[in-house]
Amino acid sequence: MSDAILRIENVHTDIAQYHILHGVDLQVPRGAVTMLLGRNGVGKTTTLRTIIGHWPAREGRIVFDGDDITALKTSERARAGIGYVPEDMGIFSDLTVEENMVLAAASGPLDTGRRDRIFEAFPPLRTFWRSPAGTLSGGQKQMLSIARAMAEERRLFLIDEPTKGLAPAIVSTMAGALRDLKRQGASILLVEQNFAVAKALGDFAAVMDDGRIVWAGEMEQLATDAGLQERLMGLSMEAG
């Protein structure tokens, strides 16, 4: 793939005594949504955390927009233009929504234009702007988590299961916001268990098993081939 914003080459990652990633090779195309799929426990979250630098790669390379970032600190990777939205949301419950956003805008004040785009994507955040983040619903907290990653200019977003446990109406809002991010030129690597969301959002997909990428291609090919889904993930998700 000639225009990949992110390349992961033969990456191995250990957590304590456990060897989790076994030579991951993955390319994330620029300006597209790439779904990272697979059963629980196969290494998807570890892959995102290795890319952002929370866990170091023992072997292999991570190349972001042409630069080798394998040895960079997490803060340096963030400054390079990578935003990370963890599954546990990573918000400060005792601070207001506004204060959470101010902290996320590390390079300076959150400008009005960016704030308004965030409000357009997630209207509840305008309503609860000065409310403690801990009082938000689960869906609203997830909106804030993604909004925090949008507080600065990012070229790549790593997002871990943004729709997990959310009501269908909130899932729809989340999907719409992620489409808007893509329209603004962002590239997205998205871990998602909801296959209906994956089909609706994904341009490309990569399937993991046992710490490796076992298939990669266009999302449409995976979404329309029940036999391929069953072979790769153990069950047909055609009805999902």
TrEMBL record:
- UniProt cross-references to InterPro entries, sorted A to Z: AAA+_ATPase, ABC_transporter-like_ATP-bd, ABC_transporter-like_CS, BCAA_Transport_ATP-bd_LivF, P-loop_NTPase
Q: Where is the ABC transporter domain?
A: 6-235
CDD domains given in the database record: ABC_TM1139_LivF_branched
**The keyword Transport is annotated on this UniProt entry:** yes
MF terms from GO for this chain are:
ATP binding; ATP hydrolysis activity; branched-chain amino acid transmembrane transporter activity
- One GO-annotated biological process of the protein: L-amino acid transport
Question: Which Pfam families does this UniProt record tie to the protein?
Answer: ABC_tran (PF00005)
Is Transport among the key words of this record?
Answer: yes
What's this protein's name? Answer: ABC transporter ATP-binding protein
Q: Which organism is it from?
A: Pseudoroseicyclus tamaricis
Q: What is the lineage of its organism?
A: Bacteria, Pseudomonadati, Pseudomonadota, Alphaproteobacteria, Rhodobacterales
